Amino acid sequence: xxxxxxxxxxxxxxxxxxxxxxxxxxxxxxxxxxxxxxxxxxxxxxxxxxxxxxxxxxxxxxxxxxxxxxxxxxxxxxxxxxxxxxxxxxxx
Length: 92
Known about the structure:
Blueprint: H1 5-29, H2 36-43, E1 51-58, E2 63-70, E3 73-80, E4 86-90
Antiparallel strand pairs: 1-2, 2-3, 3-4
């Protein structure tokens, strides 16, 4: 029974992630936010020695959160999807 728990948790997270992607795509297509590729084009060069892990999008705030790993530390970079400006950062 315990072996199935990770599978159940992963399956329950998938619809939320898909909805997040759909919201970001619709907002970018309508011009309300910049496309993810543009956000990545601006941010990735500022993180030269970090591994890019992925991104989350918050449709309520229109903020992309890009996740990086550098020297064993996770770094989050928050970017306003409307302007492309970095609005927050955690880690070094």
